[in-house]
């Protein structure tokens, strides 16, 4: 077999307080397609950022050998010069510029007088587009093309830079089946031309189909590299590697644990993408939650978890939303956020800094923000009462701050999350949807959040936790729904759930999904 | 946590807010010295109030617009259109003064509703909507006035901006009524401050030390009563000052104590978080623009009353003064931060600088350069202060 084009040896990378990568080994052979697998937050993207120079040499420890020499990339330009091109999940194209302009953006070939010869550029663009199988006019604005074609433009752009090592981060996450097929075919063609690819993906059947070898990363460590040509290298094998950690005592005991009547039910919920109306983001999802029950929704990035929650919560995501919502057996409408709030539904967002809090406002006013109506008499807010409420939540939720007049932006992640939870508890919601409630907070604060969740359930409230961390769901939930590519693919009682069984359902694709999903609903 | 804060803590806790009051005092002192005290003469003080009242009225609306994360470039044109409509109703149609006032306010509300519609419901950025409005309403002003000035307005109307309350309670050489009104205002202020402090202590919040609190009350009371004495010694209480005081009190309450005010801060601070907290963002934005229109109508009445007629080019550049007042007064460029009282002090800083430089005989060009630099430095201070806070 050929020699290694890339060897990343003993790579460690620390952020303040977090060890993101620890002694990672990644060896990629010349001319192969190498897949990287791991849960969200395992460190895959960080590793690729180290490789491409986003985190420059010196900010990490370990060595990178590229093409037989040690590489010390100081910036993304350095790595591109060496022939390493990374294509991010969020495409970096300018929608209003043409295909050709995008392909040569930042890499314009100048003709006479330093001006760009667009005829020549369009001709070269056409040639590159031919190579990636894109049959479009090079002067078409990129925004008019679908995601699949945009992905091809990114690759054409990479080819224009004389790429030797192509890195694709979740390249097929946003693509439909035929576009994905085309892309995978293209990667094979590039392989025949001698271009090495690294592909980060959650789609295990694609990896099985196309990758020569797979490296599994878990919790910032490289677990193993599997040769995909060996017969035992199945999807199950990869899943075992991805989740293989045991549940420790990181979750508080549930004390009062009685599950009552159904409080909340969603039936046949379908949501379309806000700007691509024919793309289905959530497809016929149905689920229910009972009083005192904690229900998990497990799904990988891009599965439609947040989209499902936000579309239910006042239609704050998506278009063409259809389906029914029931509260205690009666159908309700949740067309606006205030309608949802008045029906006792709360949604704590995934990204609390961006979507959950007003960081330049104090804790007191953040807590009251969603339920000002409770403090209001004929249009006037009762400031003293508001302060009292804030103080009550400060002590009951153990928000660590010298004063509730402190700005929310000055709090730590865990305390910010407690403010968000206080805000929603104050709306008197009995259905609480918590989207990634412990993302980015430390272990101690996580334990506190889990305790709060248990307390809410003990009060007879219905709690839905959306998370990509399987141990977290298995440690806190009674039941776990799995969501894959917009569909609910199963529902497991926590007693029968294993990380492997969940991950299998979470990576299940369309055709198989509808079959098994139906089975799972029947058994429940 | 009960606690007593000392002077230093009080100053540094909110350096931006305290900074502006310090700057205000420093600027007054500077120009008082440079003009040998002329700045603080009774008749000059009265003049400053009369001359800048409409900017201050606009600044109240503008700071709310800016807190909401928008901007309004059209207020100068709306001032002109409101004044032109009022003058036409009274002079050409022979309507009484109060019809003039109502028609000006109606024009302001209509202009605000128009711009609110585009900003809130169609989603056009306020910068563009009001840039269009600036041209649109200016053009309409010219149409309404047939390109010529209209004057004079009825005496009752002019009285709104130029009249005084004087001699109602007698007094030889000074107006007792003015002094009584100001004394009541000071008593009200002291009472509400004491109540606030009691509540704060009851809710276990940090408060300033008692001697410090008393000193603050005494200083404020002394300054205000000195100002009243100056006014009483000249022509009494200007009507405009009454309008202004009512507006400041009403809008301070609106911004700090009503749901609408809260929602304005919420959408300016984090639009998505506000939306996801059930704030009806579109209606709040509509309300912000509608209110700005109404206040531009009020300013239109005051300005046309003061200039005793309507001119096609009235109110040009008013929007810039109002925007500058808001930013000097501590509003954040990104929205979500600002105070009505801050905008008023910001406007007064501009007013005193302009007036002081006029007294010193500086040319218009110098005045513009200085005002421009002050605006730039005020916002630079804000940015620097935020970065410092972020680095902590």
Q: Can you offer a commentary on this structure?
A:
The complex is a heterodimer of chains A (524) and B (392). Chain A is an alpha/beta fold and 524 residues long. Chain A folds into three domains: 1-83 and 164-171 and 178-245, 3-Layer(aba) Sandwich (Rossmann fold), CATH 3.40.50; 91-162, no CATH class; 262-359 and 429-523, Rossmann fold (3-Layer(aba) Sandwich), CATH 3.40.50. Helices cover 34% and strands 26% of the residues of chain A. In chain A, the strands form five sheets. Chain A has a six-stranded mixed sheet, with helices on both faces. A six-stranded mixed sheet of chain A has the order 16-19-20-13-21-22, sandwiched between helices. In chain A, a hairpin with a 2-residue loop joins strand 17 (376-377) and strand 18. The longest helix of chain A is centred in the middle third of the chain and has 16 residues, at 177-192. The model of chain A is unreliable at 512-524 (pLDDT under 50). Chain B is mainly alpha-helical and 392 residues long. Chain B has one domain (3-166, 235-391): ABC transporter involved in vitamin B12 uptake, BtuC (Orthogonal Bundle). Helices cover 76% and strands 3% of the residues of chain B. In chain B, the strands form two sheets. A two-stranded parallel ribbon of chain B has the order 1-3. In chain B, helix 4 (75-92) runs antiparallel to helix 5 (97-122), helix 4 packs parallel to helix 6 and helix 11 (259-269) crosses helix 13. Chain B is globular, with a radius of gyration of 21 Å. Classes of the chains: A alpha/beta (524), B mainly alpha (392). Chain A binds chain B through residues 313-314, 316, 336-338, 340-341, 347, 349, 354-361, 365, 369-370, 372-373, 376, 379-381, 383-384, 387-388, 391, 402-403, 405, 423, and chain B through 1, 199, 203-206, 253, 256-260, 262-263, 265-266, 269-270, 272-280, 332, 336-337.
Rough shape of chain B?
globular
What's the CATH architecture name of chain B? Orthogonal Bundle
Q: Rg of chain B to the nearest angstrom?
A: 21 Å
The number of domains of chain A: 3
CATH homologous superfamily identity of the largest domain in chain A: P-loop containing nucleotide triphosphate hydrolases
User: Tally of extended strands of chain A?
Assistant: 22
DSSP summary: helix tally of chain A: 18
Number of strands of chain B: 4
Structural class estimated from helices and strands of chain B: mainly alpha
Helix content of chain A: 25-40%
Q: Point out poorly predicted stretches of chain A.
A: 512-524
